[in-house]
Amino acid sequence: MAASIFSSQLMAATTLRSHPPWMALRAAAQVLGSSRLFNNHGLQVQQQQQRNFSLHEYMRMELLQEAGVAIPKGHVAKSPDEAYAIAKKLVSKDVVIKAQVLAGGRGKGTFESGLKGGVKIVFSPEEAKAVSSQMIGEKLF
User: GO molecular function: any one (predicted)?
Assistant: First the structure.
């Protein structure tokens, strides 16, 4: 046991001089853990979670649907005329129009056109066309 602690301590000392600090912490944790000083609790180094992959809502919905998850009906409109056609095809008394942005808080933002909020409930295809014309191609702040 003493020989393994000594060789581990030597490795930790070498790591301290030639590697970044986080590697030294990991080596020290291994030494202390192998000597059972902390009863296998060791030293934990926490890292900040990073978000590496962003998808629009409609893209996430497509992936979920492909995986067999039930999702609400929805379509992507790239023009006010498409929004009108989709709203007419859905045959519903109300339709939700959502801006697709890669940022949180779209419901609280304001478009360059002056429209407040990136999520709107409309009650006719004509209203869908009017609202979407104030969203599509506009910046949301």
Answer: ATP binding
In a domain, 116, yes or no: yes
Strand partners, 140: 111
| Residue 130 contacts residue 97 (beta carbons within 8 Å) | no
Query: CA of 134: how far to CAs of 64, 94, 110, 124, in Å?
Result: 29, 18, 10, 16
Give the range of the structural domain holding residue 111, as residue numbers without chain letter: 74-135
Share of the chain above pLDDT 70, in %: 66
One-letter amino acid for residue 89 of the chain: K
Quote the radius of gyration of the chain (alpha carbons, Å).
28
**Identity of the residue numbered 39:** N
Beta bridge partners of 119: 98
Give the DSSP letter of residue 77: -
Residue that wins the pLDDT comparison between 127 and 33? 127
